[in-house]
Design goal:
Number of strands: 7
Number of helices: 9
Shape: globular
CATH architecture: 3-Layer(aba) Sandwich
CATH topology: Rossmann fold
Radius of gyration: 17 Å
Strand content: 5-15%
CATH class: Alpha Beta
Strand order of the largest sheet: 3-2-1-4-5-6-7
Number of domains: 1
Amino acid sequence: MEQGTAEGAGLRGRVALVTGAGVGIGQATAIALARAWAFVGIHWHSSEAAARETLAKVGGPERGMLLQADLTDEAQASRVVDELVARAGRLDILVNNAGALVQRSRLEDCSLELWRKTFDVNATSAFLVTRRSIPHLRATGRGAIVNILSLSTQTGGANGGGAYAAAKGALQVMTRTLARELAPEIRTNAVCPGVIETEHHAKHTSPQRMEEYRRETPLRRNGTAEEVAAAVLYLASDAAAFTNGALLDVSGGRFLR
């Protein structure tokens, strides 16, 4: 593992849990934290091969561990936290990245089952992991939670993404609530990515629409997972010691007016 330039983030000796760390933003975040010398818990649900790739990229079992679970299940969400703390002895950083669009549907056509599943995957899972993590984060005296939101909280979720936008909106409000409730021992912030070139958009967005997004963004391009990870790394580090309850926009200026 190369030291890189991230050691200045001051994470040597700290332990981080990244949910949904097999691909995309989660994988890039796990790698960024490891390069800053944190030990990383790599959670995955169904993408085992990708999670093992993440583990290799962070430096192997000496620098991280794999944690499989369906985080919408309370017992499994608790087990992920417990297993990491049992192995590493502490928990300093929690990155709630796991989430999915699940399925596009206009709200008038959205079934109750789809609505509940979307909230479970994107909001309830983060709640369950966070609740179990709080005592461990508090014990360090400088715990940090970083939630991954979505630009859909500002747009309302175009093209049938309303349930996903609502669930991410709930996570946004939870960010502000936790920032009040957990300070000063734990800081809670969030990153709001714009259009990022990941498997999420490869699955849910057409190439034509991705090109439109590029033209519509003031920086005239879409973002990368590594750019979002850099924002997470900042919020998790002592460089952001006076940052609490912030929503950091990483969108290339898509919402400038």
